[in-house]
Amino acid sequence: MKKLLLVIDMQNDFIDGALGTKEAEKILPAVVQKAENFDGDVIFTRDTHFENYMETQEGKNLPVPHCVRGTTGWELAPELERLRVERNAPVFDKLTFGCKELPAYLAESYPEGLESAELIGVCTDICVISNALLLKAYLPETPIAVDASCCAGVTPASHANALNAMAACQIDILDGDCPEA
User: Fold this and answer.
1) How far is it, in rounded angstroms, from Cα 139 to Cα 141?
2) Would you give the DSSP letter of residue 49?
3) Collapsing DSSP states into helix, strand and coil, what is residue 117?
4) What is residue 179's predicted lDDT score, i.e. its pLDDT?
5) Contacts of 18 (CB under 8 A, 6+ apart)
6) What is the pLDDT confidence band of residue 176, given thresholds at 50, 70 and 90?
7) What's the Cα-to-Cα distance from 76 to each of 30, 46, 79, rounded to whole Å?
8) Strand arrangement, sheet containing 41-47
9) How far apart, in whole angstroms, are the C-alpha atoms of residue 159 and residue 122?
10) Residue among 72, 71, 76, 79 nearest 90 (CA)
11) What is the chain's mean pLDDT, rounded?
């Protein structure tokens, strides 16, 4: 059985672009290091929107265009894109907070199951928590963990709230040197 690392939405717009934060900038080196050294498979996700973003429900609730397909903001951070190519790691362009295609992909790619799955990335309080809970629902007996030191939320408070919510749902919170805690 394999270990899996999911790198959630480490895109330019979430690091130093339209929705970037100093916390996301701060975790980037740790995310790169963890992905480089991970002893298992790595999968990346990209938040993906289109020119009609402002007409969508998300656009009405968060009126900041971001991660529009084909823009620089939509791309993974260059260090992570290089690593993705080197590892020949899959990338999922997800149109919702949770990656709806992930459970079917995991069932097909890992018919024997997974030893564990770990999530890192942004935003802890939106897409990381959505994907962690999605995995927990589809893989209830697989240990699921989130490395807090490699995650950043919209705000430090919402990051902490999301970590607490995930812990309550039996997702292991690895609390290395969390830059936001």
Assistant:
1) 6
2) B
3) strand
4) 40
5) 64, 65, 66, 73
6) low
7) 15, 7, 8
8) 91-94, 41-47, 2-8, 114-122, 144-152, 172-174
9) 9
10) 76
11) 95
User: 72 is written with which tokens?
Assistant: 């620089």
| Residue type (1 letter), 38 | F
Long-range interactions of 61-69: CB distance < 8 A, separation 24+ = 64/18, 64/19, 65/18, 66/13, 66/14, 66/17, 66/18, 66/19, 67/9, 67/11, 67/13, 67/14, 69/93
Strand 41-47 to 91-94 pairing: parallel
Return the exposure string of 68-105: e unless at least 16 CB atoms fall within 10 Å of the residue's CB, then b.
beebebbbbbebbbebbeeeebeebebeebbbeebeee
From CA 50, how far away is CA 60, in angstroms rounded? 14
CA distance 163 to 124: 8
User: Is-above-0.85 flag for pTM?
Assistant: yes
CA dihedral 50, 64, 165, 89 (to 10 degrees): 40
Q: Distance between CA atoms of 148 and 179, rounded to whole angstroms?
A: 8
How do beta strands 144-152 and 114-122 pair?
parallel
What is the reported pLDDT for 175?
81
* Residues 23 and 84: beta-carbon distance below 8 Å: no
CA angle 176, 179, 181 (to 5 degrees): 80
Q: Which helix (H) or strand (E) holds 36?
A: helix 22-37
